Amino acid sequence: MSILDDIVGVKLGEVAELRRLYSRGSFADFPGFHTPPRKFTDSLLAGRTRSAPSIIAEIKRASPSAGMISLLADPARLAMEYARAGAAAVSVLTDERFFGGSGCDLSDVRAAVGLPVIRKDFIIDEYQVLQSRALGADAILLIAAILPPQALAELHSMAGGLGMEALVEVHEPSDLDKIDFGSARLVGINNRNLADFTIDLATTGRIAGLLPRGVVFVSESGLHGAQDIRTVHDAGATAVLVGEYFMKENQPGTALRELLDELRQD
Predict the structure, then answer these.
(1) What's the number of CA atoms in the CB half-sphere (13 Å) around residue 253?
(2) Structural domain spans, the chain
């Protein structure tokens, strides 16, 4: 079994527990469910410049490939640092078992900043979509590799019906066959192979050339400095999602500000 198979197995158990604890309608009892969502794509488009893509700054404590990355105690404070430094949006890892996150991290971040916040997790079921809105998420990640085409379409539609956007993540050209590009216009290209967690930045360029005209895409994973970001920006990326590069620094917000300054000098 791959790491991804292990993660999905855990998610199936988490979904079963969600269904045991909550009814569909009970998510509407959470204040976050009724908080007007912020426009994720609009923020990415507004934040880019001629020389630099927008940056989605990620809050990420650990990963299966890197182990413990940061002993972060206050995600809300870090999110405020990211906002002051120039992030266009904040990504929050909410998976607990493999990434050390939680739903509380997302709610705390959403309350602390005015930026759009995306829930990054392994979403496979409608209850997780409802939970995401209850937590206050403005957008969610949907990973094509773990979803059949019909489930991907249904979860994407459900997110939209709740006012959220969905970033549909792909890694292989075959993932594109699962996407209805009539409705899905925001795509994430993951440079990391989730089967073995290896990185290949050339993935962004390969997949970008296969996307329909007008699709906004984000390059994700393995971006460790200005040169990497220039490479995917040249391939057409509107935004990049950066996590480990910042989280390994003593002052992640400062690292973001310095990175943006370097990129905008081009």
Answers:
(1) 12
(2) 3-264
Give the pLDDT of the chain (266 residues) as one tens digit per residue: 688 899 999 999 999 999 999 999 999 999 999 999 999 999 999 999 888 999 999 999 988 888 888 878 899 999 999 999 999 999 999 999 999 999 999 999 999 999 999 999 999 999 999 999 999 999 999 999 999 999 999 999 999 999 999 999 999 999 999 999 999 999 999 998 877 788 899 999 999 999 999 999 999 999 999 999 999 999 999 999 998 899 998 899 999 999 999 998 86
The CATH number of 3-264 is 3.20.20.70
